[in-house]
């Protein structure tokens, strides 16, 4: 119960930090969008104007050459646009809705790439798409997460050997831990977020370069366009201005489609993982920024802590310890803290496979601490708490207790 | 050290379960794709053929009416396609790359919607997009995760009141926990995954209906098309066959663009959260399926457990208890287990804000248990373990210990 009472004051700090991080990120993203819009507008606007001029010349030349009124031409082009929506191009394309084309389509749906080179036009297709995508996208997100977790496990296999040898040689660890090391299997070992980001980034670059080396000759794109297509596809943005494997016939068609599927699958998994790892680093940067600007926040939190809560002194005092009990080299300790949290976050974020077990661990913690497993189970059968009460109580007590050491 | 040695045998079971879940999901997704391809092909193929026939008639009629050779028409249409890629349509559209258009574009990039109604055509634009999207998409993923965590907190505020009252009235909890309840603040309370899924689904439907009610009159789409657009956009699929706010002029243009931005933002956040919650439920279904087909797996694990590992008996025996110590109504206990894990998973997955604190809690756990915080910190400064060693060691010992009770 001690911890249960202690956390009252820090809870407000905790909530404030979360909201602050959220708002700070929102503001930064908005600024990022504004800057990006300015840059893209500056880069692309001239070429757009040139394209308009070029097209107007083409249109008038055609209308003069074949004395077709612009009105007729526009109505013709409008019909062509509706035909384009149905997957028709001036050059013959592969059929949109034969089985392979439909398979490509559903692949772009569940992966949320959504090129748009194929879109349902019938009412039944649109309705079915909504329900089909709802389940498919969720399953794919889970697949990506499990893939990420598998990748981390794989990296752990490789890096554990290096680390362990370096540790043993440097003799930094007391024999007790070394035994623990030797005894602990792979899941007991997780690489850091920075190593994972580096490795994922390198593999993403390698995959993109290999895929581009395939697309450039087969699709006849420039190599840079192929790289652009790879990023747009692997990041599931999927503009659809460039779409692979759309022509009516290729040499080695089956092989090319297989390689295309393979590259897109691995690339999407890799970039998705990379995005998640980068987002962790961004979160650390946000925490660091919040820590920098948190003096004002601290005052408010302490004020809150004293607002008529029991034991409000404790968190405040611990807060003061946490804030001002630091060594003078605040910068070093700060970065150190970031790396610490970075390591731990990476492990929390990148091991999505242990959730159930972790939950059970929480339950055991709570039961051993409270000693009423029966009660929990009994109540869970009726109101669906399922042991979350005591477990989460303890969890959050501890979390709030330590949240000011962030 | 006890737990450190105990987990040897169960670790293999653990890894097997993870790999099995991953493979099972991959197989199920593949089947899902095949079925979806068959259904879409059956639904859309006829309309595609009709569209081809219609377009061919239009093409020939036009070529006859204005005696333009099909070759000239096709080259003309090819030029029109390149003009379309630059954002030109028969009907006048808003400028693509003025500031507002570029802002819309970068919004579709960082959210990975990627309509493709606007795409960079210059080399500089394509290169910049790659680096811009890399950071932007990661930041947006973090934003979505923090939004999800905020939503859960909000739901916790609401649902805690209901639950607490119902508990008190039903008197299921011993007074100790009731006090803990009253004492514990919001983060000590998390709604279950099913409630969150229900609420997110309802809010997604409400947002989509409201947005469609706006799009239908303003864009002149059918209401169903508007709903289809909402799903395709909010799920970040973003085909681009329907794109809002593309005409040159609307009545109340500024207001409409603002509402469009607002709806897309809230809708994407909502559907993203919904996908993640559904993916949790899918994971539970996978675990349940694995539990059903795990007898064979158990044999293998026990075999592994006996393969020359120290204390390999222990996990095996605990495994046997876990498997055959169940009440005869295996079905009931199984579903119960699922609900348990469901509740706990939901809390683990849906509180992404406590990762750092949780990590620190792990560190404390390990330090209190091992009693060598100094050593950890010392080593962390040199090799970046940062306390993950003992902490994760203990974490995974406990996880592996309980992994057979899944």
Automatic annotation (TrEMBL), chains A, B:
Its main location: membrane. Keywords: Cell membrane, Ion channel, Ion transport, Membrane, Metal-binding, Potassium, Potassium channel, Potassium transport, Transmembrane, Transmembrane helix, Transport, Voltage-gated channel. It catalyses: K(+)(in) = K(+)(out). One of its GO terms (biological process) is stabilization of membrane potential. GO terms for molecular function: metal ion binding; outward rectifier potassium channel activity; potassium ion leak channel activity. It holds the Pfam family Ion_trans_2. It is a multi-pass membrane protein. Residues 94-151, 202-283 form the Potassium channel domain. GO terms for cellular component: monoatomic ion channel complex; plasma membrane. The chain crosses the membrane at residues 22-43, 102-123, 129-158, 193-215, 221-243, 255-275. Residues 318-338 are annotated as: Disordered. It is found in: Cell membrane. Belongs to the two pore domain potassium channel (TC 1.A.1.8) family. This is Potassium two pore domain channel subfamily K member 12. It comes from Astyanax mexicanus.
């Amino acid at each position: 119960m001690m911890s249960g009472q202690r956390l009252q004051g820090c809870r407000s700090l905790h909530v404030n930090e979360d909201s602050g991080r959220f708002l700070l990120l929102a503001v930064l993203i908005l600024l990022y969008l504004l800057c990006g819009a300015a840059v893209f507008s500056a880069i692309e606007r001239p070429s757009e104007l040139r394209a308009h001029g070029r097209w107007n010349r083409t249109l008038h030349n055609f209308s003069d050459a074949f004395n077709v009124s612009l009105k007729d031409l526009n109505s013709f082009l409008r019909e062509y646009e509706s035909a384009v929506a149905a997957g028709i191009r001036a050059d013959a394309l592969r059929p949109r809705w034969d089985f392979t084309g439909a398979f490509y389509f559903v692949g772009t749906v569940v992966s949320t790439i959504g090129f748009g080179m194929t879109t349902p036009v019938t009412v039944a297709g649109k309705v079915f798409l909504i329900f089909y995508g709802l389940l498919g996208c969720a399953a794919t997100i889970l697949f990506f997460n499990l893939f990420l977790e598998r990748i981390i496990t794989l990296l752990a296999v490789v890096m554990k050997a290096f680390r362990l040898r370096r540790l043993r040689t440097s003799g930094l660890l007391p024999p007790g831990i070394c035994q623990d090391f030797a005894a602990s299997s792979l899941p007991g070992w997780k690489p850091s977020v920075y190593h994972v980001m580096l490795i994922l980034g390198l593999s993403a670059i390698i995959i993109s370069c290999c895929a581009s080396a395939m697309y450039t000759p087969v699709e006849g794109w420039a190599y840079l366009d192929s790289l652009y297509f790879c990023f747009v596809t692997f990041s599931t943005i999927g503009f659809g201005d460039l779409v692979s494997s759309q022509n009516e016939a290729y040499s080695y068609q089956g092989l090319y489609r297989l390689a295309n599927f393979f590259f897109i699958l691995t690339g999407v998994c890799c970039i998705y993982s990379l995005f998640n790892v980068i987002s962790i680093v961004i979160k650390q940067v946000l925490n660091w920024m919040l820590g920098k600007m948190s003096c004002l926040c601290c005052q408010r939190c302490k004020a809150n802590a004293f607002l008529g809560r029991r034991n409000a002194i404790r968190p405040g005092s611990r807060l003061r310890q946490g804030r001002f009990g630091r060594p003078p080299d605040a910068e070093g300790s700060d970065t150190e803290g970031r790396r610490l949290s970075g390591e731990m976050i990476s492990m929390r974020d990148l091991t999505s496979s242990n959730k159930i077990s972790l939950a059970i661990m929480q339950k055991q913690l709570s039961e051993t601490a409270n000693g009423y497993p029966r009660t929990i189970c009994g109540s869970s059968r009726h109101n669906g708490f399922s042991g979350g009460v005591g477990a989460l109580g303890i969890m959050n007590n501890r979390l709030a207790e330590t949240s000011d050491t962030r």
